[in-house]
Amino acid sequence: MLVRWLLGLAVFLVVLIAVALTAQRLRPVVARHQSPPLPMTLEDWIEQLSRGADKDSRLEAARRIVALGPKAVIAAVDQSTIVPEHAELIDISPAVIRAMAELGPEVAGTLGQGLSSPKENVRAGAVTILREMGTQAKSQVGPLTAVLGDENRWVRWFAIDALGNLGRDAAGAVDALLPLVDHDDRFTRRRAVVALGRIGPVAEAAVPALKRARDQDRDSSVRKAAAVALHQVNLAEIAAEAAADAREDVRQLIGQLQQDDEHESVAAAKSLGRLAHEATAAIPALTLALQHANKWVREASADALGAMGRDARTAVPMLKKLLEDEQPEVRIAAERALERIALR
Q: How many CB atoms lie within 10 A of CB 210?
């Protein structure tokens, strides 16, 4: 019995070895007869951009398209964007928007060129992606300003939004935005008002128009938005008035905060934060300091506002903008401040 079993095992092993050797000999022959994979075409990459299985595959497709040059990018936007009759909306896949927007400055210039396209859907797709980019689209203030009068309302609306996302970097668009505060379309008016507020104190020329909108606009949502925007734009004047009414020690710290020496400014912001609710007169000045060129001043000012809790709720719009700051320390401080303001 044992002998038979051993013989059977030996036969099995011989057959197994023979099969392995045969497969090894045949592998080069099979490989020679297989066709190499065809290279991916632009159409293939566009398909992967729209329908890729995951974020990484879509991002790879976006990079490949950008590497093929501006014409390829415009073709991808053209094929990915549909503007239905009557322009009720812009039909473009969120996956395409996010993948292209993630490339930021690599693709922003080409999308800016797309804004001058005679094709409505190309302009619509390009402005949608630029809007998603936030501050990374700051090089495209000129092209975005140029389409503020576009016949497609969505192109116009998203260009306004994109400029607002740029904050003070969109200072050059203020004069073009001002007429839109009196536009016939209430949605255009509200978007223009919000954008001017987000651009901030450098949009000081908008104060008269914002006051008029706050007091006289026939739409309540525009009036409310104008009141918020006026506070953001007129912040320097508001900060000066608040400082004049502050108690002596707080007034001195506000003056220190506004000095050119960033080390003194950081120290002042931290001292105001420790005073917390006793230093609420400094809230406008601290909010203004959120736009300081030095990241440590921005971080310290955000922390100080957070320490003041709900008293600092007027700073919420600018703190939210800091969530897009280039510096991670500032983003974290802004998020922390927003949480504290909401909780207290």
A: 26
Amino acid (1-letter code) at residue 26: L
- Length of the chain equals 344
Q: How far apart are CA 337 and CA 312, in angstroms?
A: 9
For residue 18, pLDDT beyond 70: no
- pLDDT attached to residue 57: 93
Q: Report the alpha-carbon distance of residue 231 to residue 224 in Å, rounded.
A: 11
What average pLDDT does range 263-271 have in this prediction? 96
Q: Could you give the percent of the chain with pLDDT greater than 70?
A: 87
Torsion angles phi and psi, residue 260, rounded to 5 = -75, -25
Q: Are strands 81-82 and 91-92 parallel, antiparallel or unpaired?
A: antiparallel
Nearest to 58, CA basis, from 100, 91, 90? 100
Bridge partners (DSSP) listed for residue 91: 82
Q: What's the Cα-to-Cα distance from 266 to each of 168, 260, 307, 324, rounded to whole Å?
A: 21, 11, 15, 21
pLDDT digits (tens, 9 = 90+) for 153-177: 999 999 999 999 998 899 999 999 9
The per-residue pLDDT for 214 is 96
For 8, 18, 25, 66, the CA distances from 126, given in Å and listed in that order, are 72, 62, 55, 14
3-class DSSP string for 322-335? HCCCCCHHHHHHHH
Instruction: Give the predicted TM-score (pTM) of the model.
Output: 0.76
CATH 1.25.10.10 fits 236-343, yes or no: yes
* 313-320 mean pLDDT: 90
Structure tokens at 328: 């991670």
The pLDDT value given to residue 7: 56
Task: Please name the residue ranges forming H helices in the chain.
Answer: 2-33, 42-51, 55-67, 70-80, 94-102, 105-114, 120-133, 141-146, 153-165, 174-177, 186-199, 207-216, 220-233, 235-244, 248-257, 262-275, 283-289, 295-307, 316-322, 328-343
Distances (CA, A) of 154 to 66, 109, 188, 266, 304: 25, 20, 10, 42, 39
